[in-house]
Write a structure and sequence with these properties.
Blueprint (H helix, E strand, L loop, with lengths): L4 H14 L3 E6 L4 E4 L1 H7 L3 H4 L10 H12 L10 E12 L5 E13 L2 E10 L1 H15 L9 H17 L4 E8 L2 H8 L1 H18 L5 E6 L2 E7 L5 H12 L4 E3 L2 E3 L3 E8 L6 H18 L3 E3 L9 H16 L2 E10 L5 E12 L3 E3 L5 H5 L4 H21 L5 E5 L10 H12 L6 E6 H6 L1 H14 L2 E7 L6 H6 L4 E4 L1 H5 L5 H16 L3 E4 L5 H9 L4 E2 L8 E2 H13 L6
Helix pairs in contact: 7-8, 13-14, 14-16
């Protein structure tokens, strides 16, 4: 049997009163007619405080007009139904204490007799919005610094490119990281490392313009996005950033100095999309750190992934077999006697269609692959063969060959060198192998083991580019080296820079105290040569003495030099 209508009304009211969602019923004049228990809890009012009052009391002022528009925009419901339709919207409710909260509202319109009534079901979504904000923050922002993360940074670049195309204006992407940050973490602890990163982030924010964006991409790497008036402005900003980070950071009372490397890529000249711009900036960053220049702008010759370098890398193995690689030699002068005592072997690639390719375009890619081993062995074989010819012609000089980082990690190298020397009929002390400080530090113990094996053969060892690496005296003492070669960057400026002159003098004194010979690289003027003689340097090489020459020209040059040796003073 159907229940009387009054029983339905009582049942409906009972359900509404215990519903989990806040339910508010209003009349056509927007006055509150019903206010359930959940509404009391959500809004902080007792029902007796709001009945008969306008609904505006429960809404944020900014949503009052929006609610009225929702109410007035109902479509007509079915003609035979008392239900006239519903609409859903997001609102901000206002509690009794004045605080606001986000909510989802479902507004239903009903016809009762000759009047319209509205039922508003309100669901507080504060926690859901908080969770959504937290998820968004974790997905797009770095928790340590509050900066955008890599994902958001990439999106910011994409948006800037769209604007840059419409303007059009250039923009720069800069990648920055801290040198030896791992050592700081390991020595002082990750807690202090995090404090350092926060201080770095603060200085970056202070030095950049409001229109610039800065992100933390992970670890000690930061990204900068700069709208530019001109491409050269990127270099000025890089210098400004480096200057801002020069002053020591104080971490829990400890002063910490950091050095940075910065790589720069420019839109649209270097790339036209976010991924390629980031990749180009990363290439430039690697170049800046390798060269010790502080910052570098992307250039195709720096990029191990540009099509030309990849093509050359694919051809290099065949080039070695086909005899396309040739050696040039740069003589080395003994400063006191004025005699030529050695020559450094420098490899070149005589490409059949591209002409003479400098080593910078193929040595680095070869170091990143297994090709550096056959390349080094080729140079050793050719250098030994030419040294034998010079000796047979009466020139008692040595030949020097550069070793790469990978060579110093090859335990078979001493045996290979021994075989090459025997095949060429060259005495071990006629050969000198040059190693760099960075090559030593890549794997110290392996470098010590390999150099010890070479030393046992009787081969001479020299440290090349001394002064620009990070080796310690303790490590140098463990290496069986005979010679230090002072990097050309110090020699070139020693007449105009007292700091460089002091470095040269100190290196010479240090080497002599250890019983080592000193060779100065990059001698370009007679004045520098005289200065080296006065400071007690042993040997020198550079353009003033002789530029690198093809192997075929070396013997005639030696014959002429033996008749009229280059003068050191």
């Amino acid at each position: 049997m159907a229940r009387p209508p009054e029983h339905d009304a009582e049942l409906l009211f009972g359900v509404i009163s215990i519903a989990a969602d806040a339910i508010v019923m209003i009349d056509e004049a927007q006055r509150i007619m019903l206010f359930n228990r959940s509404a009391e809890q959500a809004f902080g009012y007792a029902a007796s405080e709001v009945l008969g009052r306008p609904l505006d009391l429960l809404l944020s002022p900014r949503f009052v007009e929006i609610h009225r528009q929702h109410v007035s925009n109902f479509g007509a419901g079915p003609a035979t139904s008392k239900f006239m339709g519903e609409r859903q919207c997001k609102i901000f409710g206002r509690r009794k204490d004045g605080t606001e909260f986000p909510a989802e509202a479902t507004i239903s319109r009903w016809k009762r007799s000759s009047e319209m009534i509205f039922t508003v079901v309100v669901r507080d979504i504060t926690e859901r919005e908080r969770d959504r904000t937290t998820i968004h923050q974790l997905a797009y922002y770095d928790t340590l610094t509050g900066f955008p993360n890599r994902t958001l940074f990439r999106d910011l670049i994409r948006q800037a490119i769209v604007v840059g195309r419409e303007a059009p204006k250039p923009l720069a992407v800069l990648l920055l990281d801290l040198d030896q940050f791992k050592e700081i973490n390991d020595t002082l602890g990750h807690h202090r490392g995090d404090l350092l990163l926060r201080q770095v982030a603060r200085r970056l924010k202070e030095v950049l313009r409001p229109t610039d964006a800065v992100a933390r991409l992970g670890g000690d790497e930061f990204g900068l996005l700069l709208p530019l008036a001109a491409p050269e402005d990127a270099t000025l900003v890089a210098q400004k950033v480096q200057h801002a980070l020069e002053a020591p950071f104080e971490i829990e009372g400890l002063p910490i100095n950091v050095e940075t490397g910065i790589g720069i890529a420019i839109f649209p000249s270097h790339a036209g999309d976010p991924d390629n711009l980031l990749q180009k900036a990363d290439v430039a960053l690697y170049a800046a750190k390798k060269e010790g220049s502080g910052h570098a702008i992307y250039a195709p010759h720096l990029d191990p992934h540009n099509p030309r370098r990849l093509s050359l890398l694919g051809e290099l193995r065949d080039a070695i077999r086909a005899g396309q690689l040739i050696l040039h030699f740069q003589p080395k002068l003994h400063l006191l006697s004025g005699r030529i005592v050695g020559a450094e072997a420098l490899v070149r690639w005589q490409h059949p269609s591209l002409g003479l390719i400098p080593p910078g375009e193929f040595i680095s890619p070869a170091e990143q692959t297994g090709l550096i081993r056959p390349l080094t062995l080729f140079v050793l074989q050719e250098a030994a063969r030419h040294c034998q010819r010079w000796r047979q012609a009466g020139h008692r000089i040595t030949v020097a060959v550069n070793l790469s980082v990978r060579n110093l990690q090859d335990p078979q190298l001493p045996a290979c060198v021994e075989g090459i020397l025997k095949d060429a009929g060259v005495a071990p002390d006629w050969l000198e192998l040059e190693i760099t400080e960075s090559g030593i530090m890549a794997n110290v113990q392996m470098a010590i083991d390999v150099t010890a094996g070479l030393s046992r053969l009787g081969v001479g060892l020299a440290i090349d580019d001394f002064g620009i690496g990070h080796s310690s005296l303790g490590i140098l003492k463990k290496l069986p080296v005979r010679c230090l070669k002072i990097d050309r960057s110090f020699v070139k400026e020693m007449l105009t820079s007292e700091d460089d002159a002091s470095i040269v003098r100190s290196t010479i004194d240090l080497a002599h105290s250890l019983g080592l010979t000193v060779v100065a690289e990059g001698v370009e003027t007679q004045e520098v040569l005289r200065k080296l003689v006065a400071t007690g340097c042993d040997e020198a090489q550079g353009y003033y003495i002789c530029r690198p020459m093809p192997a075929a020209a070396m013997l005639p040059w030696l014959d002429q030099a033996s008749q009229a040796p280059p003068r050191a003073t």
